[in-house]
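Hi everyone, sorry if this is the wrong subforum. Our group has a chain we'd like a structural model of before ordering constructs, and none of us has done structure prediction before. Sequence below.
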Amino acid sequence: MSNSQDDLSQEKQRHRKLKKYENRAYREGFRRIAGIDEVGRGPIAGPVVAAAVILPRNFFLPGVNDSKLVSPSRRQEMAAEIKQKAIAWTVVSVSSRQIDQKNILQCTREAMCICVEELIPRPDFLLIDAVSLPHLEIEQYPIIKGDSLSISIACASILAKVERDAMMASYDQLFPGYGFKHHKGYATREHCMALESMGPCAIHRGSFEPVRSLFGIQDWIQPGLFDT
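Answer:
Right subforum, don't worry. Here is the predicted structure as tokens:
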């Protein structure tokens, strides 16, 4: 057997493992399984972006994985292929202002819920990365580190990551000097130095540290980033 055949065989075996939760749901009688994930809970600037996707049962995409483990160029290629092959997909963002007015967990859940509500056809089972969506009357199963364990969640993470990265590149043009295109709003050394020098811009999260402390914003409370 050639190396290419070996690689394909190994990739198919990896896909079977990634479909463990989807196949379990199929065996229980569910037919429209949506994977849901978000990107952008941790940054100090920019939106949180959620995505949902319903994949066909025979979906196959070599290299699909948690979006953080896929190169930017390959993520873009994969996102285009996921959108083409998916039964349905949606992407929703919630702004930094809304995050400050509410909290990051609530905004994450809101974005995810909107994604699900906009899917056509409507899913009958949800696989969600880490959080639960109690407001949705749909059978669901949260999975810790789901973007590396479920093919549906992995594909949702890729769609969300590509969308948010594009948004941050656009913000880099609107608000030059912060380096949004490179660090995507995370609190890197480069970003914090620019923040101290230039002050916050319209997409900074005033309820997040170090923005809150640096600029004396006392009336915001930063919630836990990864509470469920």
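For your construct planning: The beta strands are 33-39, 48-54, 88-94, 125-129, 139-143. The chain is about 45% helix and 15% strand.
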